[in-house]
UniProtKB/TrEMBL annotation, chains A, B:
UniProt keyword Nucleotide-binding, yes or no: no
DNA-binding found in the keyword field: yes
Domain of life: Bacteria
Organism listed in the record: Thermomonospora curvata (strain ATCC 19995 / DSM 43183 / JCM 3096 / KCTC 9072 / NBRC 15933 / NCIMB 10081 / Henssen B9)
Protein name per UniProt: Transcriptional regulator, LacI family
TM region(s), chain numbering: none
The HTH lacI-type domain, residue ranges: 5-59
Amino acid sequence: MSRAATIKDVARRAGVGVATVSRVLSGSGPVSEATRERVLRAARELEYRPSALGRGLKTRRTGSVGLVVGEITDPFCAELAAGVLACARTLGEHVLLEASHGDPGREAEIVDRLVEQRVDGVIATPAAEGDWWRSALRAGIAVVFVDRAPKELPQIPAVLADDAAGVRATVEYLAGLGHRRIGFLGTGDPAAPAEAGGVRETTFRTALAELGLQVEADLVVRARPGRDSALAAAAALLQRRPDMTAVLAAGHLLGEAVVLVARELDLRVPADLSIAMVDDVSWAELCDPPLTALARPARDMGYRACEVLRRDPARRERARPVVLPTELVIRGSCGPPSRTPAVRSARTR
Amino acid sequence: MSRAATIKDVARRAGVGVATVSRVLSGSGPVSEATRERVLRAARELEYRPSALGRGLKTRRTGSVGLVVGEITDPFCAELAAGVLACARTLGEHVLLEASHGDPGREAEIVDRLVEQRVDGVIATPAAEGDWWRSALRAGIAVVFVDRAPKELPQIPAVLADDAAGVRATVEYLAGLGHRRIGFLGTGDPAAPAEAGGVRETTFRTALAELGLQVEADLVVRARPGRDSALAAAAALLQRRPDMTAVLAAGHLLGEAVVLVARELDLRVPADLSIAMVDDVSWAELCDPPLTALARPARDMGYRACEVLRRDPARRERARPVVLPTELVIRGSCGPPSRTPAVRSARTR
DNA sequence: ATGAAAGCGCTAACAG
DNA sequence: CTGTTAGCGCTTTCAT
């Protein structure tokens, strides 16, 4: 087949100059109705599609933004992506999707390639702080972080969920139910010091202390990324402390692990163990009993992040992080602690 | 900040011609070791990133493929996307993600815009048959369908799951358990004739007939896309026929609806009702009891589809659809039909 | 081994 | 109102 028609072909066929064609198609500048018609017809007849490549080279805008997430199969990331897609569409932008799998090296490579593509901006849930972000900025590319934001890069705007408020609310809810020995399952290096825990862990500790409850070291455990580690950590936590009456999982993968382990151990939920988790993914409602979860507005976050990209550089730099509220969705997985811990501990294997 | 460095800047700084810089960076053509060093250093010092725009204009390849799915938040689509991403990475291609939301008009618009972007190829779960696909082909863009393939477009290669074999295996499994009145919950226009059901429904009917079981009209119901319709259809099916002992949901959203409605109706699973569904999404294992599901290799499908794009046009046209096997993952949601339908029907409201 | 020059398809001055 | 022209950044002959 013959090569796709170019603006020149259209111009020739319509008997006009290329500039006129450009004017008609981009709707800029004055054109007489007659020529307009002729051009449009020629374009239609040739099935002409302007090339984004040519235009981009000239205008220095590609009309596409990069989106860097950890795993697109993660429901939170997927929801985030949906938000970005929705906003990008209203802006007429395309979305280049990339998965970092949480690997900083890979993230660096991705950002590098996005710069080559001359994307108009990058939206990312950063895997790590690193010079590649600064280098993207230097290349004149707008960057906005979502969900997390390394404190080393305050010049990069961010859209976050109010995890601190959410975790606090959840802890207060559990304490209000009468729980005194509440466990926490989070992510991170198990060997790292307490201060190294993320916002969720830190807030958990603070909230507990504020309520006058003791933060027991072995009630806070961290899993490394990955299903196996999550299961192992959950098993350790549940078996180590049969007197624990409630647990907060800091993410849906961790929540999944707790549910699975609790079932394996024949614990009744919530009679023997109350379970709550961060991120209200769809299966929370399908569980039996349905899981109480802290909903974070992933879609909105993606939408907002994309909007921030559009702001002019000056306003962007100056901006404080956008912090979106969370909501504790109460279902059946949490209840008052059982009065019969003896029974419970007899059931553990 | 000053504009990003171009190949010219690098050439000037290294004291060579632009052609030499191009040779060094693309690793093509002979270059003396000394100049090579100089060029590399100059490029590094200027933080030079070649522009994909300029290169693409010249080479007529953008290094990106379009991926058109229904909803990125659908676990099946997300898994598919992950496969595409994985393969694209090995090929050094970028992925432009688009969501059609199952709307043909939107799909047409998306394809049009992808053509403008001059993507090297398009991978899609088509919402509908339509001239936009032929027009993409005419524009010289490779297209490959995944998950479904309109029969009106046999010239477009496809990567599919063997739904027919999978549904048949599932029906046989249920029948083998002793079920005689098996329900089917699918998607599509409820008013359309029986022949209009998709492969899954058609296969369901055929398989039943082959087993000598009767296909009762009101045991096959269709829901329109959307959560509410799924719930309504599931409720209708379960309430209308209390004597039904097993149900096959033709998708995870439908499975979700059945699980929710069964719980609402206080049906015990699998004693009162056995449930199986197509698509082994993550929550299937978290349900209580865990759901028996027909696993389809979404990730592989995405990977393979991306591979097919890379094939030369001639081989691509000639190809028969790639059909990947499914696997019935048996969990606890299916069992022999209860001997006490009276009890069961007393429980329905 | 290396440089000069001709575009790739488009937009944006600038002339007319 | 409309045509001509000069690039945008890169690759690729074709000379040298």
